[in-house]
Amino acid sequence: MSDDVETAFDLVACLERVRANDQAAARELVEHLHPLVLRIVRAHLPRRVAEEDLTQEVFMKVFTRLGQFQGSVPFPHWVSRIAVTTCIDHLRAQKRRPEFRWADLSENEADVLDAVLTSENDVSAGDALAARELVGKLLDQLKPDDRLVIQMLDLEQKTLIEISQLTGWSTTLIKVRAFRARRKLQKLFEQLQRKERS
Amino acid sequence: MKNPSTAWQRLVAAARQAPIPSDDIAPYGFSTRVAALAMAAIERPSLQSSLNRFSWRALGLSLMLMIVSILANYSSVTTSVDSEQDAGLDPVEEILTLT
User: Fold this and answer.
1) B56 CA to chain A: closest CA distance, Å?
2) Taking Cα atoms as reference points, which of A104, A89, A118 lies closest to residue A194?
């Protein structure tokens, strides 16, 4: 969405019309917020949940809770928080992935993993997609809350304050979860390295 | 053995370079469907809100009935109390009368 369209969109007026049950305004609001919601959903999409279904669920929550929006935070922040908590709920509901195995990786993913385990060189830009897939599979091994924290910190490079605003968790809790997640990842890398040697 | 956290950091750094899909415009019909569903959900009251509304109505009705019944029976209640007081003899006076 271009900046012109962004500035031209009158969010306050649109919200007023939505509150008056104007369906056209609701449609405009969905179109305006779709990129924001989709970005969050894609970043935290649980396995076997369709991104469109999850996006729709977020929007339904936004509309049904619209009466609770007091305007103390910007509306996009409020929507982001609903999107994040919806993703967390789905991540918590999904069963933990079975043990991480080399055999489950594609050839590209295995190459990338081998490269980061055995070489100090950076992974080539051409392997970025494989690296992202691999990161997703590794993150699946973590507890949902820990996964969310480490993903926001390391992948999305959000600050502790930003994560706190999105999740409602204290910065201390976020640090604890990040520590726990990194320790788990460390053990995972050690196991993978041992298995590779054997 | 290499430092695993460094391996993770390098892996994540590579993952960050992956292109972000740019098809972030809502699919055709998505916004219309969501808006229609949302409006229907807003117009359809939930069970909790219905119960809430009915309980307040029931409370108001019961208060009104209570006030009406008090007003309707006030005169008969006060009359019966007065007549009981009138009919009741003073025990001291009764003993004196007998003696």
Assistant:
1) 21
2) A118
* B14 with A182: Cβ contact below 8 A: no
B24, B34, B37, best to mutate vs chain A, most A CBs in 10 Å: B34
Q: What pTM does this model have? A: 0.67
Alpha-carbon span A90 to A45, nearest angstrom: 8
Exposed, middle or buried by CB within 10 Å (0-12, 13-18, 19+), for B58?
exposed
CB contact under 8 A, A189 and B8: yes
Instruction: Tell me what the pLDDT averaged over chain A comes to.
Output: 85
Minimal Cβ distance to B7: which of A31, A66, A189: A189
| Contact yes or no for B23/A137 (Cβ under 8 A) | no
Q: How far is CA A160 from CA A75, A138, A146, A177, in A?
A: 20, 22, 13, 12
Of B44, B38, B43, B46, the residue nearest A29 (C-alpha) = B38
What value of ipTM does the predicted structure carry?
0.73
**The tokens of A97 are what?**
């992935």
Please report the number of interchain residue pairs, chain A to chain B, with beta-carbon separation below 8 angstroms. 128
Q: Which string of DSSP letters, residue by residue, matches B50-69?
A: HHHHHHHHHHHHHHHHHHHH
